[in-house]
Structures are given as structure tokens and as C-alpha cells.
């Protein structure tokens, strides 16, 4: 009888199948990680856009600007991955110097459309800044 040296064809094929299964699993994992990364990037961009819109409302310089500029509206902004729709709604509160702002950012990532919502109170009168303004006689 001859001694067997090396691998048989069956052993080599089984090893090849196992290696291919492992590589397929790694490729699927990589694809899901890329999709999750893109979703996180899109949500990060949407959050930044909503906070920028809120900051624009909070940096108005006069009470007249506050009264006239903070009204319901919408705009679109191009991001790295998507075109984002930014909508805001304004509600008056019981306190006359505050407005309740509801900002919604949406983007067509999947079916259904993804959305992010930020809500905040915006003060109408910043006393330190108001005190520095020159009032008309």
C-alpha cells in the first residue's frame, strides 16, 4: 500500500467551499456596514441643517425681525448624499416673547422617506442685546 501524501481533491473542494462561505459573509457584513454608515451620515447632515435653521431664528437682531421673520416656511438644501427638504412651523405660546418652532427635515433615503424633527422655544427678546441697541427717540 502506498502512503497518502498531501490533500485529496475532496478535501481541497471542501476547504474552498468553506473559504468562499467565509468571504461571502465578510462581504455581506461590509455592505451592511456601508449602508449603516451612509444612514448615519444622512442623519448627521439633517441634524446640522435643522440646527442651522434654528440658529438663524435665534440670532435675529430686533424684535421686529423676530416678529416678522419667524413665520412658517420651507426650503431645500443639497447635502453630500441627498437633497433635504426643511420645513418649519411656528406656534405662538402663552408668553408673548416666545415662539414654539417645529423644524422637520426629510430626505428620500429609502421607501418611506426618512425624517428628523427638532422642536424648540425661540425667545423674542434678548435683554442684554436689546439693552445695547439704540432706541429711536
Outline the structure in words.
It is a single chain. This protein has 137 residues and is of the alpha+beta class. The chain has one domain (9-132). Strand 2 and strand 3 (98-107) form a beta hairpin. It is rod-shaped and about 100 Å long. Helix content is 46%, strand content 26%.
Figure out the total of helices.
3
The count of domains is: 1
The overall pLDDT average reads 84
The string of secondary-structure elements, in order, is: HHEEEEH
User: What is the radius of gyration?
Assistant: 29 Å
Structural class by helix and strand composition: alpha+beta
Low-confidence stretches: none
Give the N-to-C terminal Cα separation: 117 Å
Q: Residue share in helices?
A: 40-55%
**Apparent shape:** rod-shaped
How are the SSEs placed, and which strands pair?
Elements: H1 9-58, H2 63-69, E1 73-78, E2 83-92, E3 98-107, E4 114-123, H3 127-132
Antiparallel strand pairs: 1-2, 2-3, 3-4
Key terms for this structure?
4 strands; alpha+beta; 46% helix; 4-stranded antiparallel sheet; 137 residues
Short description:
By secondary structure, the protein is of the alpha+beta class. The protein has three helices and four strands. It has one domain.
Amino acid at each position: 500500500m502506498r502512503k497518502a501524501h498531501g490533500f485529496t481533491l475532496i478535501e481541497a473542494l471542501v476547504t474552498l467551499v468553506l473559504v468562499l462561505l467565509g468571504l461571502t459573509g465578510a462581504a455581506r457584513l461590509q455592505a451592511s456596514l456601508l449602508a449603516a454608515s451612509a444612514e448615519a451620515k444622512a442623519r448627521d447632515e439633517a441634524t446640522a441643517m435643522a440646527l442651522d435653521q434654528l440658529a438663524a431664528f435665534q440670532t435675529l437682531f430686533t424684535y421686529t425681525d423676530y416678529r416678522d421673520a419667524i413665520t412658517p416656511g420651507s426650503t431645500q438644501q443639497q447635502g453630500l448624499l441627498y437633497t433635504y427638504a426643511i420645513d418649519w412651523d411656528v406656534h405662538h405660546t402663552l408668553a408673548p416673547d416666545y415662539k414654539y418652532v417645529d423644524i422637520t427635515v426629510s430626505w428620500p433615503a429609502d421607501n418611506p422617506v426618512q425624517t428628523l424633527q427638532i422642536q424648540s422655544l425661540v425667545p423674542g427678546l434678548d435683554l442684554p442685546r436689546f439693552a445695547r441697541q439704540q432706541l429711536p427717540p
